Amino acid sequence: MNDYISAFLVGGTICLIAQILMDKTKLTPARILVSFVTIGVILGALNIYDYVMEIGKEGAAIPLPGFGYNLAKSAIKEVNKVGLLGAFTGGIKGSAGGISAAIVFGYIMSIIFNPKTKK
What we know:
The chain is an all-alpha fold. The protein contains 6 helices and no strands.
């Protein structure tokens, strides 16, 4: 039960920060999302996000900083394995399943629902 609470608190805090940025700043959602992925990459490369993952478990892995963390860790692992080429292939190999799922499920949702632009 404690894992569920910590995952909820960490993931909820990340989402809360994003919502506050969307509501209180002039940043577009796209810039906020890109910033979160970039922050995840930087914190992952510096091994700082490891502590967030340890506390938040999947609550830290699912939001966008977790995606950036996954990219950084996969690229570092691949560089150690095959050299410089791993910097280009590691992130894709490490996140291919998640990216594929996002594309497939996004497509399914676009068929089921009628998306509208925000006014």
